[in-house]
Amino acid sequence: MPHSAYFKQSCRLCPRLANFLDDVKLKHPDYHALPVAPFGDPDARLLIVGLAPGMHGANASGRPFTGDYAGLLLYKALYDFGFSNQLESTSLADGLQLSNCRITNAVKCLPPQNKPTGDEIKQCNPYLAAEIKTLPKHSVILALGNIAHQAVLRAYGLKVTTAKFGHHTLYDLPDSNKLVSSYHCSRYNVQTKRLSMEMLAAVFADIRDLLA
Ligand SMILES: O=c1cc[nH]c(=O)[nH]1
Fold it and tell me: At what angle do helices 118-133 and 146-155 cross, to 10 degrees?
C-alpha cells in the first residue's frame, strides 16, 4: 500500500496545531499550512525522519525540508549519494525526484516556535509507525535529531532508554531495519558548526554501505 494511505491531510487530532495552522493560513494564504505529507519513493529502503515542518519551509511549500535553510545540507547529501536527481529542493514543481529514499517528519504539522509538545509527538506517532511498516526488509531509518530518534523508538514500541541519541550512531531495530541517527541539519546546528557537510556525508556513506 502506498505510504500516502497512512497520511491524512485533513488530520486535526492536535487542536493546538490545527488552530495554529488555521491562523497561519489566514496570514499566508499562499502557504500549504496543512499537515505535510511524506515525500519520495514509496518503495524506498531509506526513510529519513525530521522533526516537523518549518514555518517558511515545508509548511509553505508542502514538501519536507523544502524552502528553508534546513534542507540545504540534506538535499545536497541526497544528491551526492545518488538518492536525488537535483541538488536543491525548492518547490513541489521543481521536478525533484528521490529514488530509494523517502522523507517524513515525526510531527506532520508546523508547531508554534518549532516545538511540538510531548502529547503532539505521541498523537502523530501512529502515522510514523504506519509508514515504517511499509518499509521493505533491511531498510535504514535516518533520524535527524533527538526528537526524531525518540519518535522512531516509540513507533517500534521501544522505551526511549533503549537507544541513546547521538550523532552518527547505529542501532539494530527489532525487525531487520537499522536506525542511524544524526544531529539535525537545522540552520542553528550548521551555523554553530555542530553539524558540517562532511559530518553528514560521513553518515550517508555508512547508510550507502548498509543499503548495499
Ligand atoms: O525537521 C524539519 C525541519 C525543517 N523541515 C522539515 O520538514 N523538517
Answer: 60
Domains of the chain: residue spans and CATH? 23-211 (3.40.470.10)
Which residues of the chain, if any, have pLDDT below 50?
Answer: 1-3
The protein residue with its alpha carbon nearest to ligand 1, atom 5, reads 65
Q: What is the distance between the alpha carbons of residues 7 and 126, in angstroms, rounded to a whole number?
A: 10
Predicted TM-score (pTM) of this structure: 0.96
Ligand 1 in reach of 182 Cβ (< 6 A): no
**Atom number of ligand 1 nearest to Cα 64:** 7
What is the distance between the alpha carbons of residues 9 and 27, in angstroms, rounded to a whole number?
20
Q: Which atom of ligand 1 is nearest to the CA of 105?
A: 8
Measured in angstroms, how far is the CA atom of residue 76 from the centroid of ligand 1? 15
107's grid cell = 510531527
**Pairing mode of beta strands 101-105, 140-144:** unpaired
Residues 6+ apart with CB under 8 A from 198: none
pLDDT, residue 6, reads: 77
- Cα 48 to averaged position of ligand 1 atoms, centre (Å): 11
HEC string of 26-93?
Answer: HHCCCCCCCCCCCEECCCCCEEEEECCCCCCCHHHHCCCCCCCCHHHHHHHHHHHCCCECCCCCCCCC
Cβ neighbours around 117 below 10 Å, total: 14
When computed from its CA atoms, the radius of gyration of the chain, rounded to whole angstroms, is 16
